Amino acid sequence: MSVVTNTTTIGAIELPSRRNTELLLLAFAVVIPIFAYANVGLSIHGKLPPGMLTYGLGLGVLAGLAHLVVRRYAKYADPLLLPIATLLNGLGLVIIYRLDQSERLQNLAKRQFGGFTESAPRQMMYTALALALFAVVLLVLKDHRVLQRFTYISMAASLVLLILPVVPGLGADVFGAKIWISVGGFSIQPGEFAKIVIAIFFAGYLMVKRDALALASRRFMGLYLPRGRDLGPILMIWAMSLLVLVFENDLGTSLLFFGMFVIMLYVATERTSWIVIGLLMSIGGAVVVGTTASHVKVRVTAWLDPFACYSKSGACEQVGQSIMSFGSGGVLGTGWGQGNSDLIGFAANSDFIFSTVGEELGLSGVMAFLLLYGLIIERGVRTALAARDPFGKLFAIGLSGAFSLQIFVVAGGVMGLIPLTGMTMPFLASGGSSVLANWVLIAILIRISDTARRPAPAPAPSPDSEMTQVVRPS
């Protein structure tokens, strides 16, 4: 006699999507800027600001719609990226509103331009457009690996974006830097979008060429030096970054451009020699351009000793005012609306907006903001580690590296650690190009993290394995 037992195949275990966690964090990310907005109004005018309800509802609706898109089209995405970006964007709107209330900036605008227009409403409009673009990216980009097909097209597109600001009649010279193009009365900074497009090319190119680039011909002073013909790509990128510096006087974009490539090259090849070579070439290029390009030379002079040329140079005055803003903030800051960072001038809400954080929120506020930025970078690196395909790994690390480099060069410039670069703080500074590009960056990281965290599909059932007869002797 025997006993027959039927066994069936067990499907894949469903992993938690963490969307409810994201929703809870989003609630805090909306409430905190509303309280900050109220604090600014009470500090400056002694009453709640009139647009507080509209601002809170607008930010809440935009964040809620973005959450619904992520819940529907990127179910397994990282739950921290959207709330942190929303919190930074919301606090950036508060700081811009605070600077709009400055009588000094209002009088300065009336003297120079004949009138004053608040920047906060325009920035709110840019935020709405950016979150709409965020949703479009998630709807259209179903799989990030599709972008690998456009490796060389993205290289051509990035070159076009970098060249546009120097095209006569299209580019605009703003305070010595040719990083803007003007179309129909609107100004766009193509370099903000070029960092995303060039990351596609780097990821696709290095995925194919990483084995060749990892080879070393000789060892010198403990470093494995690459073969001569393998130095070609890095020499080309180095030359392109120098051309950006020379023709556009844009130190920030060239550092971001070249630094991102070196980071991705190191991750792809695991060769420390590339890091050393990249640093040496960066220093060499910066020294050459810093001593020849007048605009960069002025910023280097302001960095070395801003108070020596304080009354002679606008750049020295801005850097000096920024350093004094951080110094007067102390540990806890002067409080919302109680600082004097508006003395920096029109750059107070763009290049130097982090100075307002340092003065009015103090060292504790600066560390809190840097921690939020660090969390975005950490989640991007974690996404790169979890990605199952090499293109996704390199793409995620490239975007995270570009984001981290931009934070470093902006914060370092306004604090006097490095020469001022003219770039804007992501999500905080006033400007449409920056907020649009950085929300696209967040959307791509969310898409890659969704693909990385999504559970593998269960294997297709086989007719032979649907029922297995186990015969046991009686």
UniProtKB/TrEMBL annotation:
- Residues crossing the lipid bilayer are 23-40, 52-69, 81-99, 123-141, 153-172, 192-208, 228-245, 251-268, 275-296, 352-373, 394-418, 424-446
Q: Membrane topology for this entry?
A: Multi-pass membrane protein
Keyword Cell cycle belongs to the record? yes
What are the boundaries of the region Disordered? 453-474
Keyword Cell division present in the record's keywords: the answer is yes
Instruction: Give a GO biological-process term.
Output: cell division
UniProt keyword terms in alphabetical order:
Cell cycle, Cell division, Cell shape, Membrane, Transmembrane, Transmembrane helix
- Record localization: Membrane
- InterPro entries, per the entry: FtsW/RodA (IPR001182)
The lineage's top-level taxon is Bacteria
Which protein is depicted?
Cell division protein FtsW
* Species, as recorded: Streptomyces cirratus
